[in-house]
Amino acid sequence: MGGLELEYPFWLLLPFLYIICLKFCPKRSEAILFSGFKFLKKAAQKGEIFQKVVWFLLIFFISLTLATPLKKSDVEVKNDKGYEIALIMDASGSMREFNKFQITKNIVKEFLKQRKHDKVGLTIFADFAYVAVPLTYDKKSMIRLLDRIDVGVAGTRQTALYEALFLSANLFKDSKAKNKIAILLTDGVDNTNSIPLDVAIKTVKKYGIKVYTIGIGRAGEFNPQVLKYIAKESGGKFFQAQSVAALRDIYKTINSLEKSEIKAKKYVKKKYYIEYPLAIAILFLFGLIVYRLKGVKYAI
User: Fold this and answer.
1) How far apart are CA 61 and CA 67, in angstroms?
2) Which residues contact 158 (CB under 8 A, 6 or more apart)?
3) Given CA atoms 95, 97, 100, 103 in this order, what sign does their dihedral have?
4) Assuming Cys at both sites, which of 25, 87, 186, 290 could form a disulfide with 21, CB separation 3.0 to 4.6 Å?
5) pLDDT tens sequence across 161-205
6) Which residue segments constitute the domains of the chain, with CATH numbers given?
7) How confident is the model over 58-92, as pLDDT tens digits?
8) Distinct helix (H) and strand (E) counts, the chain
9) Phi-psi category of residue 2: left, alpha or beta, with phi > 0 → left and psi -120 to 50 → alpha
């Protein structure tokens, strides 16, 4: 969709009927039209072709108006009962090693493209945590934002993991969705002490959020016990990735485990353009009236 269409194209038969009528329909008496004035008859013959063309164009644009030109576009109505997902991404200095942050962004973007009917939010953390994108259906804007986010946007020296989990949990404060999940990815351990772990987990439980935790990198860089604890307490699952392929598989697994069965309802949005052919038809009609009035004036 996107181009102009006609809602009732059969009205375009009118100009053809007019042409047929010109050829086969009986003509009115010229004596009635011109009251026997020969010079008016001659003038009428000269203007006959002009009038026929104007009448044809008038009928054409009237038929085009009746045919109702419009442009259609699909609009999706999202269902609030679908999944709501918080993506929690570590952007600390260590994520620059081996291009981990860029690789993660690329995989997350692939994941986003598969969650067409879900609300998704994004939280970034390093020295501090912040909500980059609240829960939204607008994945395209989120993908564009991800392209601009890089390591250092929230500092480089620390890892506010628990704070990020707490902030992300609060994204669901007013949520009415039945399915709420968070995907927490990190290559480090919390070392800011800004939010206690038990407070973060308590908030997660309060809003009924299932947390999938992902530890990436070499052994010892992150604390698997803490990540397992967060996942277990929330009803989620812990994953460990030491390669790009493994990380991609993890997001695929989560996508399949939490596959949304709710389809977005669609309706067709119509924008009508009848005012344009109608305006042209009125101009031709006005011109025809003026032309005929001039003929009457000269006849008198």
Assistant:
1) 9
2) 92, 126, 127, 191, 192
3) positive
4) 25
5) 999 999 999 999 998 888 899 999 999 999 998 999 999 999 999
6) 4-73+268-299 (no CATH), 79-257 (3.40.50.410)
7) 899 999 999 999 988 766 555 545 689 999 999 99
8) 10, 9
9) left
